């Protein structure tokens, strides 16, 4: 698992943990309670995140809090372990709290959209909500981010009901979460290569394309100088702004799938979680069947090879 910290902007670095990034907000050597963690990666990432934090901020340096851009499994995988070990509060948008306090599962993923192995396998990803209990707290109204002076949160729904991005006006730095990403996250090859490219939110986990389009346009209007995203390498300068402006202007062609469960009708959610979801696209059953059959074939071949070796 790569553990090299990539600079995004002043006092902001990104750590790739498997297929997803976490971000550390705070200057080197900030010490105990002198920094903030944004997102917590995949399950099993806690040790790598703690080790990286110790190298950057000091041995045994705990964050003042954890901020979640949203609660999908690849962004909250280590949050329970880290929040307990660090005795740290976890902040998220109020509309995200049902998925962080055990009240609701997210709308189901759509494995037919986006193409690529990671999209096709999305029906296997964890779907149950986590329960942080009283550690989960709503971000304050007005946009302030606890213990992150100079930053404000922006509600950027679409990929998740309570998805937020973080913005620092002083140097035009953006933490975008999955509102947009800088790799084609649906493709395992693209994720492995990490070639920078501005892309829409991961399609298989996006249940409201109208809201997602509005969020991308709002972030493009900020004209950020630097951005760290949930997936892909950090981007800066003209390359970032051109890519984001192009995505905003051509969102339907570049990001919205041609078909899929949520393309015509979004999932309906409220403060309690999921209210309703549209029925699956007929292609979804076929896609799941093909992946299951392929996995079964691989397993049978492995068993056959094992039997021949005996």
TrEMBL record:
Residues 19-231 form the Metallo-beta-lactamase domain. PANTHER family: METALLO-BETA-LACTAMASE DOMAIN-CONTAINING, METALLO-BETA-LACTAMASE DOMAIN-CONTAINING PROTEIN. The lineage of its organism: Bacteria, Pseudomonadati, Rhodothermota, Rhodothermia, Rhodothermales. It comes from Rubrivirga litoralis. InterPro entries: Metallo-B-lactamas (IPR001279), NDM-1-like (IPR050855), RibonucZ/Hydroxyglut_hydro (IPR036866). It comes from the Bacteria. This is MBL fold metallo-hydrolase. Pfam families: Lactamase_B. Signal peptide: none annotated.
